[in-house]
Design a protein that fits this description.
Elements (H helix, E strand, L loop, with lengths): L2 E5 L6 E6 L5 H17 L5 E5 L15 H10 L9 E4 L3 H13 L7 E4 L2 H10 L10
Parallel strand pairs: 2-3, 3-4, 4-5
Antiparallel strand pairs: 1-2
Length: 138
Amino acid sequence: MGIDLHWDNDAQTVMMCAVDEHWTWDEMDASMRQIKSITDSADHEIAAIVDVTKGVNIPGGIFSPNTLNQAKQMLKMGETSTPGPVIIVGASSMIKTIYNTLRGMDKNGLSNVSFAATVDEARATLKARNYAYAPTTS
């Protein structure tokens, strides 16, 4: 599967990015381009749920020179001036370590990212933040 990107609600205010254990940076880059295209054309803020409950292997390994830059782009979910909330579901301690490292390098960056244990918890968090939220019925 790699990376599956789709709307998580009928109002199209929340995107679901389900990441399989076997993905590539090329797939991630393609997903980021798709997200940027969507967010650039939207007239409202878009939130994202990133589901990594199936596990994540870092292509090239965690110590690859490109990994931190790629991880930062992934957590930003595209380049927008006003990024919506990003909730990562099922993050391992490694993902949280990468996040904390990036936050340490840029105190203002990635402040829109948070973590949840389940997709339902992430959805409840977004609903509490007044996102028009009714999960997609398809």
